[in-house]
Amino acid sequence: MLNEFLTFINKQNLIQPSQKVLLAVSGGMDSVVMCDLFSKAKLNFAIAHCNFGLRGEESNEDEMFVKKLSIKYKVPFYVTTFQTTDFAENEKISTQMAARILRYEWFEKIRTQHQFDYIATAHHQNDVLETVLLNLTKGTGIAGLHGIRVKNGHIIRPVLFAEKESFFDYVVENQIIWREDSSNESNKYQRNLIRNEVVPLLKQINPNLENTIQQTVERITAVEDIFEQEMEMLKKQITWSDSQAIYVNYKAIQTLSQPVIKLAELLKPYNFSYQQSQDIFEAFDKEAGKMFLTPTHTLVKDRTELVITPKNLQAFTSKTIETNNVVVEFGDRMLNIGEFTEIEEDFIVPTAKKVACLDADKIRFPLQLRKWKEGDWFCPLGMNKKKLISDFLIDQKVPLNLKKDVYLLTSNGSIVWVIGFRIDDRFKVTEKTAKICLMEVK
């Protein structure tokens, strides 16, 4: 199996010797075999394990087993625990979907923080078969028929060449221990029902079912590649993004052939279903403000475009800032509060929205960084009267789903800066200002 593994990696051009790979390891047979193959191939890897807390003490024992595996192979080990059931209930999604969303978001976080080139999962040919059948059962587009890709962005499947039987042979031959997930036998999970009941029946018709499906998948993938090239060109023409959101020119979509199919493809990375895409298309001619949700993203039909924002799965809590000359992280942004400096005669106040220039003598520490709430008010720069933040954001034409990510900086209870928009007039630099404080958000 090692030779097949190396041949597959080379043929698919998956990993270069210098690259670092983060292995997603549950402790089950498939991922344990993948670890052993990476070790024997002398590839640079680390192990990541998710404890979903779904099987009580079994889940904790899985975690300990995988940790010992990392010690055995002398590689770094990363682990996290999720409140999977709570997340599934809050988002009104299945436990399996919740686990998938949580683990891939965490894997990507570890990958970027520790500079891994890829995340590797231990999917194999039987998984491809089950995925295609499950997608057909639920209804799917062309993407659902290719099953599981060998490579998808930073995610690779280096053992996708193998059938399940190969893993059994490998662990017997190499005397490898693994953890058996008791939930794999329960048909209450849809994938298990297909694996345990449907596939055996289909194999009575075609004993070579896995290979047949794999050949079909290859042909479908070729057709999908042609479609994706067209979609990539379309994406460049009608979508754009900034640090807060993705924007889609929906009026351009209305002029296309098969607009719903193409809209669904554009929205797929944000977990919108085909039915939702149909509903969104029907809302194009209706008034602005209609909102659509997935477990990971929010979409609002604004005046001229669709505005898509990621959900913050961990709610932001306010932060107290004790002094100047600090950098404060909030959301996916950074607030840099500079030193107080003497104002120079030829100083010009910057006008960029991401920069605040304030009279240092009017600021009182500690400052508070928080999200805005109903009832908040300030005196916008250039005005000498109060204005509700809610009204200010309407004037600024901030899309509904971007309003939730508007942050305030306050001093002694008064709003100093609606970050990224405007400072309060009471804190502006005047001819009487002796010292200034420059703040910048990135």
TrEMBL record:
Tell me the keywords, alphabetical order.
ATP-binding, Cytoplasm, Ligase, Nucleotide-binding, tRNA processing
Q: Which CDD domains match?
A: TilS_N
SUPFAM superfamilies (UniProt xref): Adenine nucleotide alpha hydrolases-like, PheT/TilS domain
Query: Its Gene Ontology molecular function terms?
Result: tRNA(Ile)-lysidine synthase activity
Report the EC code(s) recorded for this entry. Answer: 6.3.4.19
Give me the residues that bind ATP, please. Answer: 26-31
Tell me the compartments it is located in: Cytoplasm
What this protein is reported to do is described as:
Ligates lysine onto the cytidine present at position 34 of the AUA codon-specific tRNA(Ile) that contains the anticodon CAU, in an ATP-dependent manner. Cytidine is converted to lysidine, thus changing the amino acid specificity of the tRNA from methionine to isoleucine.
The written remark on domains in the entry is:
The N-terminal region contains the highly conserved SGGXDS motif, predicted to be a P-loop motif involved in ATP binding.
Give the protein family: Belongs to the tRNA(Ile)-lysidine synthase family.
Protein's UniProt name = tRNA(Ile)-lysidine synthase
